[in-house]
Structure formats: structure tokens, C-alpha cells
Fold this sequence. Notes:
This protein is 43% helix and 7% strand. The chain is α/β, with parallel strands linked by helices and 398 residues long. A five-stranded parallel β-sheet has the order 3-2-1-4-5.
Amino acid sequence: MPVLTTDAESETGIPKSLSNEPPSETMEEIEHTCPQPRLAVHCVLFEAPLSEWPKNPESFLSSKRARKTLTAPAPFADETSCQCQAPHEKLTIAQARLGTPVDRPVRVYADGIFDLFHSGHARALMQAKTLFPNSYLLVGVCSDDLTHKFKGFTVMNEAERYEALRHCRYVDEVIRDAPWTLTPEFLEKHKIDFVAHDDIPYSSAGSDDVYKHIKEAGMFVPTQRTEGISTSDIITRIVRDYDVYARRNLQRGYTAKELNVSFINEKKYRFQNQVDKMKEKVKNVEERSKEFVNRVEEKSHDLIQKWEEKSREFIGNFLELFGPDGAWKQMFQERSSRMLQALSPKQSPVSSPTRSRSPSRSPSPTFSWLPNKTSPPSSPKAASASISSMSEGDEDEK
């Protein structure tokens, strides 16, 4: 492993990195006993040659091989401090990116408040973890006293913030009560090689940039901030929609005393919750009624369509039967002609042959007494005389 001389120091006492080219001198190899990364990626990755390393270490860290070794939260620094007796030579960024021996991981430090731990925090730690192939990430968390003094009040207390960091998969070690400004003694105690933070100057504690001396010493490695998410943004949302969240927690069973809500506001919030429930019920009824109306419209449309089809079929059948050329008219004509024939039989011919008279019977008498149709009796006396003569004739026949 190349060694960098430490005779050149910055004004703060932090050794400056020399050129990126490794020096020609080498030191006697001594076995390192530094704590190993929790993911133990060297077991499956760094024993292989450089040509077999993945091009994207982030994707490897999210793979199943790396995830299998995470069985416990990250330890605290006072539980597992680096007691390595081997000389902890200073590295340049170029040397660290080329890779280090398995027993000598690059110790990267990242610090912060980490209040309301969110995805922006996790992404920053992921970047710090994947800066170098073989890295050991130490995360410093400032105490409540320092945070309240230099930044402001926090939502989570220090114990909650420590635990949140311990359960982040990228963190190998958590340093409690981290200093606000890094000192040479702190860097030496924890054998820190590089400090990772976003490159925006962080003005605090009377300094324009608390990482200025780290940058001058060549130990600063920048990470990128995640836009659109921060602790301040989350708190702003809660403050902006305070009434909504107060009503939400009241509805979930919290008391007005726990929420620091006055008696009047409590009644107001509960009334608003009741109004919202009524609105929700009305909205549900409206939605159901709309669904019902839509179903009725669909069914009515189908019924109308079927009725139109049936009506067309009925009209067609009616016209086929009773139309001008319909079958009913022909049948009626045939039946009416038959009835007319039955009611008016054919007339007998004018000149019919005379029947031959039977010899046994006498010829029928000639009724000369029948009155002439064209000449009616001229008087009542004549009519009576004719009737008497008819009766005499009948008696003679008898």
C-alpha cells in the first residue's frame, strides 16, 4: 500500500494530500484489523480482479447478494471502535477509487442532524457508501443540545435519530454526539479518510463553511442533494396544513391536551370532522346514484333498441298480411267470391224441354180461373166472384 508523508499540514493541523500519483516508497505490510463493512461486499466482489468489478456499485449494493448479510442494525462507535494497530496511511481520492486491500477499507464519514429521516438522507448516505469500491461508512449524529443551539428545535429527539440511522442499510457505524465542527483529534480518533457532504457551503457557528478546512486538506468528497425533499419541507407541510393534521389525530383518538388544542378549537375540529363525514356520505350516494342512472340508461337503451326491432318486425308482418298486395286480401277475395256463388246459384235456361207425361195420371187441369197479372179486378164484387169460382173448382177436383 502506498504511503503519503504527513509533514505537510494545513493550518488546522490536518495533513494535506499530496499528488494523485502514488509515491515510489513502500512500507512493510502489516495486517489491518479495521472493522469491516456490514454488507461484507469484499467477500463476493473485492477478492476478484478489477476487471470483474461491477461498473455500477450502487446496483450491486441493491442486489440480493449484498442484502443477505444485513441481519442486525449498525453498531455505535463506542461499541466497536477501530483498534487497528497498523499504520493508517493517508489516501488520495484516486488511490481510494482504485481500491484498497480487503482488510483496509476506506473510512468515509458523513454527519448531519437527520431529523425526520427521509429518502433525501438515505440517498446522500448511499452516495457516500458507494464513493469507493471498499468503503466503511461512519455517520455522525449531533446531539439535541448542539442542534438546538446552532440550528433549531427538532421533531425527533437524539435517541430516535440515532436509531433511525442504525437501521439504514448503507450505514456501517453510528457516532453519537458528533461534533458540530470536525477537529483533527476527532478525525484521528476514528481514523477517517474522507468526509462526504453536499458541496454547498454550510455556514454555521460563526463560519462561512464548516467544511472549509476539510476541503483544503483534500479530504472532502461531494455528494448530490435530492431536490424536492428535506426536513424543512416536511415541517412546512405540517405547519401549512395544521388544522388538517390536528383533525386527523383527534379522529384517531388523541386528546386535545396531547395536541395542545384549546377547547373551542377541539369542538370546531370535531364539528368539521362530522361535516366531512356527511359530505363523504353524500358523495358516495351521488356516485351510487350516478352508477344507477347509468345502468338504467344502458338498460333503457337496450329496451328501446329491442322495441324498435320488434315494432319493425310487427309492422312488416302486418303489411305482409293486410297490405295492398297482402295475403289476407287475396284470401278475403277468394272467400267472398265463394260466398257470392253460394248465395246466387246459376239461372235455368229459358227453353227447357217438356217432361213426358205419365199415362197413368191425368193431365193437369188448365187453370183458366187464375186472374191475369196485368189486369187486376176492377171492383170488389168481381174479386169476390173470382174467389167463389176458385172454391167451386177445388170442390169439383175433390
